[in-house]
Amino acid sequence: MKVADIMTKEVDTCNPGHSLQEVAAKMKEINVGSIPICKNEKLVGIITDRDIVVRGIADNLSLESAVSEILSENMVTGNKDMSVEEAAELMADHQIRRLPIVENDKVVGIVSLGDIAVKDKSYGNADIALDEVSEPAEPEK
């Protein structure tokens, strides 16, 4: 099965100038945990709900701060022709829960661990990714 068969095709994005509050509100509105950040339709980063909390609020940034201050720029991306197994392995290798699917630097979809678990009937692929992504971390004290 190909990623194109299970990916979410209509992906809402924000731009680097959107505020933390605007992006958080968009996440709430569409019920997602991450949003790709695009400039002139080109993917430049991704921001997660965790980024907003850990890199934004915990570091005392204003909710009006631009997401460009905290977004993850070194993204791992996939393409729509890769197999679901390849996507699951890529997600496991990089310990990520969501994989933007890109074509010519433009977001054409996104795949989450949930998509793999629910839409890929082989189920083994979700286990591959989930085992690695959900590996318990030792808290830093």
From TrEMBL:
<feature type="domain" description="CBS">
    <location>
        <begin position="71"/>
        <end position="128"/>
    </location>
</feature>
<dbReference type="Pfam" id="PF00571">
    <property type="entry name" value="CBS"/>
</dbReference>
<dbReference type="InterPro" id="IPR000644">
    <property type="entry name" value="CBS_dom"/>
</dbReference>
<keyword id="KW-0129">CBS domain</keyword>
<protein>
    <submittedName>
        <fullName>CBS domain-containing protein</fullName>
    </submittedName>
</protein>
<dbReference type="InterPro" id="IPR046342">
    <property type="entry name" value="CBS_dom_sf"/>
</dbReference>
<feature type="domain" description="CBS">
    <location>
        <begin position="7"/>
        <end position="63"/>
    </location>
</feature>
<dbReference type="InterPro" id="IPR051257">
    <property type="entry name" value="Diverse_CBS-Domain"/>
</dbReference>
